[in-house]
Amino acid sequence: MDNFELIKADILNRLRTELPKNLFYHCPEHTLDVIDASIRIAESENVSGKDLYLIKVAALFHDTGFLVVHRGHEEQSCLVARESLNGYGMPETDIDKICELIMATKLPQSPKDKLGEILCDADLDYLGRDDFFTIGNTLYEEMMDYRFLSNEREWNRLQLKFLENHSYFTPTSIKLRNNIKKQHLDRIREIVEGYGTDLA
């Protein structure tokens, strides 16, 4: 359990050198952000030891599937994790748990326990932060580049629906992020309402 920094250095190097350059949101910085948020939330939720280790490793690998594919990347992330972690001699039961945590982040999120809830909240921590629009813009640029979106209006409608349906799981994230997230939701709703009935 003391080899996290070694695994982290290996995987971050792969992400920095092998990821497509048009992944403006799903980039190494996002992975580091999710790791940091996972640690902060876990410690606030009194999760430590091996459970914290498993969360950190899952956070590290949760988007490695983008090395292979864009849609359905969670399944690929599990394959990358299995191959890599087997090489580090990690027990199969721990790898299974890590893959369960990774799959919990697939939208709509479906955590099975507190560890999954922590990782899911960490993955979308930015929704309730002051850098929401800055980070969101990188996702907009990525989705436009992949032609998943046609224009900014479509993006704002998508964001509105997503925020309306999203809920944090952990008491920590509910307490720390809900109020700011609601402010972002109100702002986007205001923008979308400004479109009126124009569907363009």
Description:
- By secondary structure, this protein is an all-alpha fold.
- The chain has a single domain, classed as Hypothetical protein af1432.
- Helices cover 67% and strands 0% of the residues.
- The chain contains 9 helices and no strands.
- It has helices spanning 4-18, 28-44, 49-61, 73-87, 92-104, 114-123, 132-145, 152-165, 171-193.
- The longest helix has 23 residues, at 171-193.
- The mean pLDDT is 96.
Can you give keywords for this protein?
67% helix, single chain, mainly alpha, Hypothetical protein af1432, globular, 200 residues
Short description:
This protein is mostly helical. It has one domain: Hypothetical protein af1432.
CATH topology term: Hypothetical protein af1432
Question: Quick check: average pLDDT?
Answer: 96
Discrete helix count: 9
**Coarse shape:** globular
Fraction of helical residues: 55-70%
Number of strands: 0
CATH architecture: Orthogonal Bundle
Report the biggest beta sheet as strand number plus sense, adding barrel if it closes.
none
Give the amount of beta strand, in percent.
Answer: under 5%
Task: Please state the CA-atom Rg, rounded to the nearest Å.
Answer: 17 Å
The computed structural class is mainly alpha
At the first level of CATH, the class is Mainly Alpha
CATH superfamily: Hypothetical protein af1432
User: How many domains would you count in the coordinates?
Assistant: 1
Low-confidence stretches: none
Query: What's the N-to-C terminus distance?
Result: 53 Å
Order of helices and strands: HHHHHHHHH
